[in-house]
Amino acid sequence: MAEEVQKKKIVFVVNPISGTLGKKAILRQIKKLLDKERFDYTICPTRRAGHATEIARQAVAEGAFAVCAVGGDGTVNEVARSLVHTDTALAIIPCGSGNGLARHLHIPMDATRAIRMLNAHEVQTIDYGQINDHLFFCTCGVGFDAFISQRFAESGKRGMLTYVENVLQTALTYHPETYELEVVNEDAVNETYKAVLIACANASQYGNNAYIAPHASVRDGLLDVVIIEPFSPMEAPRMAFHLLQGTLDRHSRIKTLRCRRLSIHRKEGAPIHVDGDPMLEAADVEVAIVPQGLRCICPTEEGVESMKTSLVNVWKEYANNFTMYSKDLWENNMFRKRN
């Protein structure tokens, strides 16, 4: 008699409001495609901010193999902060507004392929970062991007168009600040910069393939720090082009450095952003990288080059998502008519 293989437990943490569409289609795909011979699973919708962290913490206590964040970078952050330095791995089915960490890790954007990758459960160990008392897994920063994150959160709407709208409304009136930096590697170096923003990156992008730190790696034990100096409105289109092409470091207004730890001093308290979520912090900000602190189910490759894909695959992704979400919307309309 063959020995029975013990199934591994996966907890799916579903944020029902992340992104711009519902999650019924993705839940159907989980039920249909997840390998039931290898996994037992539960689905836990979140009901409030911070709930994903609580669910993930409980999953760790119960010895779960993985907790899968079904949502955007905010959901990923809430889940992952409970998984650091544990044996429970992070998995991601990306369906948020930006999906920066998932894109960097080359996790497929369509749910079908993401679930099939989860079935293969290739576990890597990656770095994470800390800014003051907050953990981040993709990017954090001060300045314009933190200000925009605050505006985006206050707008009450999600999606790339809302984000672009906020950028356009505030870009011409935002005033750059002066920052004092202490960069710590083997020794400490002090520098002063007037900057539009300072981004500290574990992964390469904000999301939506906007590469703020094109050469960042989640496996090198270093922060990639990007300083954008003041630039004129005429330079903005070229800056945006470099951001989307993964060549931002070639722009003359960009300064980059790598370090293990960074101290940022501002004149007064102001927002920071942590994986896109805004938080009000004091004038002094401490940022550090924590090497090899998180187990994650993802491919081995990472970065800009690995993210490039054929136009055929892009259209396949859109087609798969359109089919799933169309069915989702149709079911919602039928439910409204019956009720």
Give an overview of the whole structure.
The structure is a single chain. The protein has 339 residues and is α+β, with helices and mostly antiparallel strands. The chain contains 10 helices and 16 strands. Strands 6-5-16-13-8-9 form a 6-stranded antiparallel β-sheet, with no helix packed on it. It has a 6-stranded antiparallel β-sheet with strand order 12-11-10-7-14-15. Helix 1 packs parallel to helix 5 and helix 6 packs across helix 7. The longest helix is centred in the C-terminal third of the chain and has 28 residues. The C terminus is likely disordered.
Alpha-beta classification: alpha+beta
What's the N-to-C terminus distance?
A: 53 Å
> How many strands in all?
16
Beta fraction of the residues? Answer: 25-35%
Poorly predicted spans: 306-315, 324-339
Cα Rg: 20 Å
What is the helix/strand order?
EHEHEHEHHEEEHHEEEEHEEEEEHH
Helix content: 25-40%
**Helix count from the secondary structure assignment:** 10
Q: Quick one: biggest sheet?
A: 6 strands, antiparallel
Work out the oligomeric state of the chains in this entry: single chain
The coarse silhouette is: elongated
Mean pLDDT comes to 84
Spatial arrangement of strands, main beta sheet: 6-5-16-13-8-9
